[in-house]
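RESIDUES AND SHAPES:
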Amino acid sequence: SRPYALKVIYGNHEESVRRQIRREIEILRDVDHPNVVKCHEMYDHNGEIQVLLEFMDGGSLEGILISHEANLSDLARQVLSGLNYLHRRHIVHRDIKPSNLLINSKKVVKIADFGVSRILDQTMDPCNSSVGTIAYMSPERINTDLNHGLYDGYAGDIWSLGVSILEFYLGRFPFAVGRQGDWASLMCAICMSQPPEAPPTASNEFRHFISCCLQRDPARRWSAAQLLQHPFILRGQPHQVAQNLHQLL
């Protein structure tokens, strides 16, 4: 036998919402990519929605420093590969962040919570979003007055990816305000200040890659498919993983 992970969605949802959740999960069961955590089954048990998922024995990459660019390039390539697959299937993640990037004993990095986050975002009050999640949201998602009130979920995922990759490189949340700051401080930092940049000590390729992700104008952000062809990604060798990732396992 092999271990699985169980994701439980609590809450007294109306029946129409429960049907929507079940429909969404049925779609997500068809998702199959080596860089996306597999959704195996769904159960509706005693008022709880339980989702049976692939188990990632290395845990999440939250709090990991990856300052070696070759290793960071490979990690970014794996995440982009999974993200590009989801986007081609018209699935928006909505919650890309280090804690939703998992690694297994084979040193494969996979995107997690790609479906559950989207379902909750559609069926629950957005005001209930956690500050930790808001920290990785794009400016136009936080402030709907930006971009004429239009929100491109695919471009929003790219912003979140850029913030996450830069955080791995720096070893800290890349905005001046802390990731656990209050909502108002985070909103001001993300929506009103200039997007964070990779430091001058980084390579030109990495600096440009981050810039392509963290454009304030969502129309100027590169797509996942375009970023997979970026020089920073193409220079990485497959399945290189930093020594500090090995220490997770």
In short: The chain has one domain: 57-246.
